[in-house]
Each structure stands twice: as C-alpha cells, then as structure tokens.
Amino acid sequence: MRYIVITGDLVGSSKLLDRGKVQTQVKATLHKMNRLFRQDIVVGFAFSGGDEFQGLVKLGDKVFALLKEFQKQLYPVKAYFGIGYGEISTPIAKTTVEMDGECFHNSRKAIEYAKKLHQEIVFITGNEEKNTILNTVLQLISAIKSSWNDIHYRRIWKYEELNTLEQVAEKEAVSLRAISKTLQDAKYDAIRNAEDFICQELTLK
Predict the structure, then answer these.
(1) Burial of 166 (0-12, 13-18, 19+ CB in 10 A)
(2) How far, in Å, CA of 81 to CA of 117, rounded?
(3) pLDDT (tens digit, 9 = 90+) per residue, 157-181?
(4) Which terminal Cβ of the chain has fewer Cβ within 10 Å, N or C?
C-alpha cells in the first residue's frame, strides 16, 4: 500500500531571533494540523529532529489543502516541504522516526531538493513526468509569491475564507478597489489556476 510522507523544515531556522517562541508556534501548529486533518493522517505530525517535522498521510486529494493550511498556520515563519510518495517497509508506528520505506526516502530527497532550489514545496511521486509537471508549476508559484508581503497574505487568506471582496474590504476597513488591487498585484488568479491544476494532477493515477 502506498502512502505520502510530508517532511517540513523551517527556512533559516539558525537565524531566527526567538527560537523558543518559534518552536512553540510550530508545536501548536502540528497539534492543530493533526486535529484538522485527522481523517487523512495515518501517523501524526511531530518534530523528527532539530527544526524538522514529519507526518504520514493517506493518498488522496487533501494533500495540497493540507500544505496550504500548514503555510497559513506557520506564517510568518516559513518552511520547506518535501512530499514523498511510496510504500512503507516497516509496521505503522506511533511516530514516523520509527518507520522506513520508499515514501520516506522520497520525502528526504524532496526536502533536500526544496532547500537546494529555495522552493517552498517539492513532490517526488515515483512518476518522473508527474514530478516534472508538479515541481515546475510549484516553482512558478514560489517565484510569484516571493513578492508578496504581509498585506497580500492576510487579504488573500481572508478572501479564501470569506469568498467575497466586499466582506474582505469590510474586515480590512478599506475600499473594494484596494482589495481588488491587492489580488491583482499578487497575481491571485494565476496562482489559483496553478493550484487547481496541481490538485487535478494529484488526483490522477
């Protein structure tokens, strides 16, 4: 049976000014993610060494939604994510550090690749063509998001939650035009189209 291993590693963790506060935030995020996605998680997310964390997830269409929620919950801290597909060669255990298998090796390769490219998310699925498609699109998404600031992230997340520009403008106490301009500057429509494409690719066999 195939599974997905998601390995995360904090970006620039050695340079963080308040490592204790960040560790507390990450720990709280892991607990929240384990609760929010409990139906999709086989072995819960936990620290697996240093500032690295890991979890084992079922194959399915929730993977990208899980990654996006991780990014939202961790912000302003950023992390690299290496996603590895494959089988496991050991019994299911309470923590991923007690386990091994193809998906773990692929996740390790993916996280190292993500760090090398300075790319937020990298997939290794066992299908080279799919890897190329997914990671090329993700690289373009990362390039666009590199110009985002706190306002972009905050307003876009509110828009995805509320789904209307009017409600976001009301929450932000700004004009409708200001919200529209934020989404336009962030190239939000292009990002959403790219993310929808990734979700479609992940559901294909």
Answers:
(1) exposed
(2) 12
(3) 999 999 999 999 999 999 999 999 9
(4) C
